[in-house]
Structure formats: C-alpha cells, structure tokens
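Hi P.,

Sorry for the delay on this. The queue was packed all week, but I finally got your sequence through. Input first:
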Amino acid sequence: MSPEPALVKPYPHPSSAGRSANMKANRRTDTKPELALRRALHARGYRYRKDLRLDLAGGIRVRPDIVFTARHVAVFVDGCFWHCCPEHGSQPASNTWYWEPKLRRNVERDRTADAALDEAGWTVVRLWEHESLDAAIAKVTDAVSRRTLRAG
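Then the structure:
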C-alpha cells in the first residue's frame, strides 16, 4: 500500500481586514529602500538594469533588484522580515506552520541564488533594508569599481 498523502493545510486566512491590506501592500520590486538606492546611484552616474531576470546554469533563474550587466554585479535589497534579518527579522506568532517554512525557503533561495551567481562569475551584493543609504551606496560602488568591464 502507498503511504497516505500528507495533509495539506489551506492557505491561511488573514486575521483581519487591516492585516490583509498590509500584506497586499508588500511589493516585490520598487520598495522604498530600493528606490532610494537606485536614485542615488543614478544621480552619481551609474547605469544599471532593474529587476532583470538572469537565467543561470542548472535552470536557476534569479531576479536581482539592480544589475550591472557589463560588470557582472548583482545587487539585492532584502527586507528584514522576508529574508530573516538577524537584527530585525521577526517570526510571526500566528500561522507558524505556514510562515516558518516560507521564510526558511526565502533564505535558502537567497543562498542558492548567491552560489549560482558566484559560480557564473558574478559579484553579489546583499543589502538589508535597514542599512543606511550611504553605506549601501559605498558597498555597491565598491563592488562595481572592483570589477573590470566585460565585453558585450
């Protein structure tokens, strides 16, 4: 006999209309920290692609927030909650059966993307949303300046 299929819990319902509106307002791209960083980099003369899908070896697809294609630098601006920041990340108290694996998968996906980009010769810059704009600019510009320009 085949084993019984695991019980699949339904997608959790929001605890309130306010919580539902809050979750719907979360964005995948164009977050406030990302926009601030892009504006500052652009003002300093840096040109980049935003939210560019990179197809890497092994069928891995990655969407960095900011991509310097000629220099092979990928920049991610990670949210403290969604990517489990050691300083500011918090674990939800309700629906832990849903949130714990989801947040763990986010972190695992980050590590897989970092490894695949590194293997493909890219420099990865990971920034937390709480980092100061000056510190973020310094990390990105340092990474870009250390990379030699690649031909087409």
